[in-house]
Amino acid sequence: MPELFPVPDGLDELAAEMPFIVDVIARTTRWVHPDVFHALPVWYPETARRLPIFDAGWQRVYTNTSRATASVRAKAEGNGMAARALIAALGTRRTANWTVCHIWGVDDPGFQKTNRVVSDRRYYSCVANMVWLPTPLKGFTDAVPDVKRILRTCAFHLYGWTCEHEDVAEEARRVRVGPPPDIYPASWPTADRKALPPGTAPFSARVADSIARRKRDLRAMMGDESMAQFPRDAVREVLAFWKMDLGDDGDGDDREIT
Length: 258
Description:
Elements: H1 10-14, H2 18-28, H3 34-39, E1 63-65, E2 72-74, H4 80-90, E3 98-102, H5 121-124, E4 130-134, H6 138-143, H7 145-159, H8 169-177, H9 205-223, H10 232-242
Antiparallel strand pairs: 1-2, 3-4
């Protein structure tokens, strides 16, 4: 039988290039300021990935109809509201060729397991659980374990947080107690180096306005009994978990802004 053309595992092929790849990630990744995370950890506690998408009044679920079979299926949340949360927390707008990356999720090289972390309202729109990356780099965060580890390590030292979901408990423990990986960027924070990563957005007046508006909207939805299917009990659980106070004056967080 003719000899096969030898092709190694793709990760092995890239092993020697990882310092360069990590340098690009370190220089281009956008992070939410830690004060923004502490002001509003979760922006859309009413939803998570795979949950049905409701209209603005929470009266009905949006649907898709198959052209081939005419079957009707409920629209499910993908990454839309997570992206909206991250972009607002960065104080920017949607920009071409940038993609939201969740830092914590179920590690599954075969992409066969349900990602219960981002299907959890506590973590889906958590701004400490997301970064904004140039779209071509997203594949590294999905498929390279060392890249996932450095992002999680940075989030731990930047926000003082690791994911509490049971599906990632062992990985979270390793991040908390272990040393940073050998390829960890020198410009990112560690236990001994307090620093903001390059690309960290400021806690700007625009962000403060977005926080105040989101709190105000959440208070209104929690109190609006006409929103028949708004998940009040689930939202209360998320607020309690994060110790989030929506306030009652609508002026947002009182931290100093830049």
